[in-house]
Amino acid sequence: MTKILMVCLGNICRSPLAEGILKAKLKSESFYVDSAGTGDYHIGKNPDPRSIAIAKKYGLDISNLKGRQFDVSDFDKFDSIFVMDESNYRNVISLARNEEDKAKVNFILNLVHPNQDYNVPDPYYGGHEGFENVYKMLNEACTILANSLIKTNNDNS
Ligand code: 4NP
User: Fold this and answer.
1) Which band of pLDDT confidence, cut at 50, 70 and 90, is reported for residue 157?
2) pLDDT of res. 96
């Protein structure tokens, strides 16, 4: 079982959408996908209604996901940790205990633009078009990620 964690600040806008998009591209028997926020403001909350709506538009149901905070134990539970922006990156890296932990963390958009460390913009204070933009960025990155994970899984089996 390969385990992937998506991380943003609130775990209500970007990372639950990334979780839903990636889950839909992978078989749940072989891959576990989860999301978390570096902040604690929205623990136990469902995703932002605008994230739920954009997911629904593209055939995904993320309405039952619940916000949780990133924890240092996530370094043990997950094989790869994808952050949405540089602030998330700094927050997650600051909890890393060793180089092995740090090596699990990457910017999600580096899957599309290697080594550029681009941010998925925080859509929380914007309008609906921000969520469309975020969906498109995440879908492109998750398509590349899913293809790569499936290939690695097939090569190893
Ligand atoms: P997210 O967006 O990190 O994509 O879930 C945010 C959600 C809430 C807040 C900030 C960003 N907030 O400040 O409450």
Assistant:
1) confident
2) 98
Q: Is residue 11 lining ligand 1, measured as CB closer than 6 Å?
A: yes
Q: What is the mean pLDDT of the chain?
A: 97
- Cβ neighbourhood burial of 157 (10 Å; 0-12, 13-18, 19+): exposed
Could you give the C-alpha distances from 48 to 52, 60, 80, 82, 120, in angstroms and in order?
A: 6, 14, 25, 20, 16
For each of the domains in the chain, give its residue range(s) and CATH number, in order of start. Answer: 2-155 (3.40.50.2300)
CB-based burial label for 29 (10 Å; 0-12, 13-18, 19+): exposed
Q: Is residue 62 left, alpha or beta, with left meaning phi > 0 and alpha meaning psi from -120 to 50?
A: alpha
Ligand 1 atom nearest residue 11's Cα = 5
**Ligand 1 contacts CB of residue 12 (under 6 A):** yes
- Let me know: does 40 contact 9? Beta carbons within 8 Å: no
Chain segment 114-146, per-residue pLDDT in tens: 999 999 999 998 877 899 999 999 999 999 999
**pTM exceeds 0.90:** yes
